[in-house]
Amino acid sequence: MFFTTLANNLQVLYLPFPTTSSVFISLKGKAGRRGEQEKEIGGAHFLEHLFFDGTIKRLSASELSKFLDDQGAQHNGLTGTETVNYFVKILAGKAEFGFEYLSDIYFNSLFRGEDIEKERKVIFEEQAMYKDRPEEVLKQELGSLLYPNQILGRKFYDDQKNLDLLTKEILLNYKKRNYVSQNFILTVAGKITKESALVLAEKYFSQFDQGKIISFPKAEIEKEMKIKIINQNLGQSQLAIGFRGYSRLQVQEKIFCFLLRKILTGGHSSRLYRRLRNELHLIYTVHSGLTCFSDIGDFSLETKMKEENLPQTLNEILREIKKLLTGGITGDELQRAKNLLLSDFLFSLEKFEAYVDYFNSQYLFKNEIVSIEDNAKLIKNTSVQQVMSVAEYIFSDKPKICILTPKLKELSLFL
């Protein structure tokens, strides 16, 4: 691994991965939806679409795609809450085609009026697609309960309301302010030498404009208990419960929290799985999640069941949380959680893209760089008291509960 910064302040990360047959080139930036101003709502994602519609060299989306298709390469763009990412995966020996492509779309995209109008329609359909997915609606609605009246709580499909107001000027202002070298990292990974990677990085990205490092608006978790019931014509009721969590910079606490997730929902022997499925037969499966932003985060539990079993399922989850807080966890439980988490962590890094993301996200957000070995050691050395400390912090927060269900209008809770 090698990290450097070009003269224009663009970060460059080189990650050798000699056992692969490919080179992975990623241009990842701090921006995303959280970098939007009020009139720019939806602009980050809109801009991503426009990068693939034509450049000075390759005038159409078809020409752009053909340039990489001819080399057998894969490419895509992603817009998240705090990041944007444009990447190419290409066979070793053809890496320069990937560099040229990313440089071309980044520096030479045309942003024509006709492309903006075309993408306006496409994005409307994409947002409508997500609104028709119950799992996505549940996730978005829970976010709005956790982070009310904030960017983090804005539902993706609600951006439809602003689509017709986004102009070329607004989109390019967002780009000019956020798409600057200080906010980006270029990662080159795979079967390529460090010397070649750095030469190509300098050749294709030395023209990157500089600017101000992005600063996201402060976010806060809702402090009061909230319940939102949405009636939809579904075969199952869907339940999500959210609590405060940890930011991406809180490295140790995140590990403790991941272990807590394993204890609660990690496999058939986990507490909630054992109680809700094996003993009470209320559900098929149950999941937990930890969403980490740069300065804040949240912990969630999700499951599905018959509507008639919804009140019992919710109250059983709350009872299991209370039981954990009063009775603690055992050493055997923690050891099982460690084994599961360690396997998940190391197995995931066998996937090329996950290996890249593990390192470039750490560099991009300036948190301490934790090696794979140190991360594994932290998992192995975690104590029962450390896991209980995060459990007490998370579950002392008042729950935010979101439900999608056919007919139920209200329910009572065991608290």
UniProtKB/TrEMBL annotation:
Gene3D superfamilies: Metalloenzyme, LuxS/M16 peptidase-like (3.30.830.10). PROSITE patterns: INSULINASE. Residues 18-157 form the Peptidase M16 N-terminal domain. Pfam families: Peptidase_M16, Peptidase_M16_C. GO terms for biological process: proteolysis. It comes from the Bacteria. InterPro entries: Metalloenz_LuxS/M16, MPP/UQCRC_Complex, Pept_M16_N, Pept_M16_Zn_BS, Peptidase_M16_C. Transmembrane segments: none annotated. GO terms for molecular function: metal ion binding; metalloendopeptidase activity. Residues 166-341 form the Peptidase M16 C-terminal domain. SUPFAM superfamilies: LuxS/MPP-like metallohydrolase. Belongs to the peptidase M16 family. PANTHER family: METALLOPROTEASE, MITOCHONDRIAL-PROCESSING PEPTIDASE SUBUNIT ALPHA. This is Insulinase family protein. It comes from Candidatus Shapirobacteria bacterium CG03_land_8_20_14_0_80_39_12.
